[in-house]
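To assess whether ligand presence alters the predicted conformation, the chain was also submitted together with fe (ii) ion. Input:
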Amino acid sequence: MYNPEKFAAVEDNFIHIHGALVRDLARIIEGGERLFFESFPRFARILKAHTQLEEELFFPALEERAPGATSTTEAPHRELEDHLAQLVAWSEGTGFLDFNRVQERLGGFQRELECHLIEERRVVMPAMMENFSAEELWALDGRIMEFCSPEFMEEMMPWWFIHMDLAGRVAVGGNMVAGVDEGFVPVLAQWISDGLDTGAWLELVAQVPALGAGSTRVQVQVAG
Ligand SMILES: [Fe+2]
Ligand SMILES: [Fe+2]
């Protein structure tokens, strides 16, 4: 049965990060050679961290409750990792021959990634909601920061908010504000606003006012 509280506790990881990864990769592919060298390494770091989070935090917890629930993700994770490593090497100039070959590989990688993300949403996300209470899901979500360095968060958060539409930003921003200590909200607001222009930031804060409460940027903008 649909439970909005459980949905909110898993949507960031199974819908909104996936959406941002798909968008960014499409942008990179469209952007040709220049964007590949400029943006693929960051995309790769974020996808890698996402996979690691699944394999070290979410999936072992789910396997304990529902053995086999994540088995269909294993082979795709390994394949994606291999193909990602090849593309990263090329993006760093190692063994790079010609961009047509890169583009071919990027297209294949995009199809592989999209299939995998759809499968996680179709199979793993419902299993998470079925096997954990809302409190347990929030507790798992609250452990994400243990797996990410502040430097990584500083890079990932603006990237994430750039590659979401307003509905996604409102959902993720709202979930985050609800999940962190009040004292941490200004840091969160800084990371998020770093990626957005003033109009987009104000649009977000209008719908998630708690996010603006600790931010100097919104006060300056409103006052000005
Ligand atoms: Fe995955
Ligand atoms: Fe995923």
